[in-house]
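U., I forgot to send this yesterday:
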Amino acid sequence: MEVFNTLFGVPLGFLLYWCHQLIPSYGPAILVFTLATKVILFPLSLLAQKNAVAMVRIKPALDDIKRRFEGNQDLVLAEQRRLHKREHYSSLKGMAPMLIQIPIILGLINVIYKPLQHLLHLPSEAIRSLVARAAQLDGVDSVALGYGAQLRVIEQVQANPEAFADLANVGAGIGRIAALNMSFFGMDLAAVPTWTSWTIVWPALSALSALALCLYQNRHYILNRFQSPAANWAMTVFMVLFSGYFALVLPCGLGLYWTAGNLASIAVVWLCNVAYRPERHADLTAIAPRERLSRAQRADLRTRRRQASRRERSDAKRFFAAKGKQLVFYSEGSGYWKYFGRLIGYLLEHTDLTVHYVTSDPADAVFERRHPRLATYYIGRRALIAFMMKLDADVVVLTLPDLETFHIKRSLVRRDAEYIYLDHGMTSLHLMLREDALDHFDTVFCYGPNHNVEVRQLEELGDLPAKQLVNTGYGLLDDLLEAVAAQDSTPAPGRPVALVAPSWQVDNLMELCLEETVRPLAEAGFEVVVRPHPEFVKRFAPKVAASRAALADLIETGRVEFQTDFSSNATVYTADLVVTDWSSIAQEFSYATGRPSIFVNTPMKVMNPHWDRIAAPPLDITLRDQIGVSIDVADLGRIGAVAREFKERAAVWRERIEQVRRDNIYNIGASERAMGEYLVWATGRFERRRAAAERRPAARAAARSGAPAGRSDDQSNKEAPDAAAKSR
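Result:
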């Protein structure tokens, strides 16, 4: 405790000493001391106010981050830190006034327990003599008096000053001690409250003042106004209980300080709101009130969570009980089957492999599929980290990048497992993935020549070992081509259809310029179908509602339709053109239908800020003027004329787009075979290794006996099948 006395007690002791010199009465001096600390610390309180307003100002953006990257807590935290830095927000600034109270309290405890040092400024030698005499009078040693030794000295001197008169080094100090008045309204502020005296009023006043402060903050402090009532009341209860207990176990002077400090803090909150009005620096109307679940909804949520947890444990047990797992697919949710479905269908029809399909969506439609060699499992996102680290399989196929970077890790059980990356869009890997997103994969399924070039240049830039690159093509595109071929190609009567399909990145078309895009198309005679990204609909329902309201007049006249039912892709196949920002739906639409796309130049979607270190130009940029036309946001007034020109020159665009497709996509119509044959070869390689390992003891025994050894297949089929066109 001497450290606290030196660091905090001495400076605060001088402050209380000056207050006591100004008002030579202990209680009023503590009140002046409390006011002085609030004045000194007001700049910190104002800094915390500005920081709180900054938090409220960026809260919509923080909520967007949480919704946009839901399920990936590492990425959420990374994006939040980036936003905090950009907006100059620091959680430490907000806690500064509260944190500074800790040394003040510690210092004040020292001051109140050591008034001979801090209030009377007696020499250290004199204090030691006084404490020794007080201990002698009590029949104990000095150590036994403990931390309240100086308070005991005051008590004894004021009761019997003659007992200390012979101490030569104290001098006039005895008179000063005898004159020291530590009472306030008849209560000894040096005493610890007891239940049988009036001193118990201080714990009660401390608790009540804490309640008053919390109630005021809940109504008038900017952060509390936007917290849930449950959070505010939880803090209120804690502060009331803490304040009461704090004042109950320490001298009454601390209770007086704490009570006065709580009441003064109400004034500080009021002054901060006057000096830096939140309404002038943040749009408080943009903060949506927190949705409150009913009791029935909360009960239903708990029930579903328990059911999912039981199912998760059961499925994990069943997964790890399965022996000899050769092939595992991991899906983030139900919507990812479309990337795997064609390949898995080929494997189930043409091979004898068992497909183990793990999903983090308890409602994944894959559970409705029935096949004796399709084993499905539910593993939630929280349990996924440990699950993946214990994974026992030969080959693992993922559409999820950033292996080892965030929550998905390579197996610690099977160090030799092969991890294959299958992208879920015909995009450029070095622009649309983070810089090191593919570093820990062994194999990449390449949809076109650009993937080969990009991966090799990324490896060279990062001095990474070469991956297996398998030229496969894109299964989803093959599905789209078949679906379009099955459609009636006769033009539908009525107005041509423009499909507006934004991405859900930050500053997407939906958020930035939807009305400026839709109205010119409607005026040009198009029926406009707005089809927001499914994730945008799920995470940003209020923004979708606001967009509907802005286009209400066009919706009422039937010229604009909002589609949020994604069970069918019929609109995608039948539209005359697609309008998007940076969504890969443009490639899917144009490649599948042969019809052009219009790209609105919203801020570019960039996951890798160092993408330009790679020499290969991203297809996401170059294709914009090969399969359509790009338009700046400021130039959207001409989008209607561009759309009409597309309709008039449909045949020319079809021929052009088909050539672009042939140049950029491998194995059109046969991607599943290329991928499937590679997986058969890859899983077979593990089987051959195991078989060779089992033969080695027999071969060594045969060598010792002189018998000829059988031929090993370990050297056969070293190369991947020609159909996969494996690139090295």
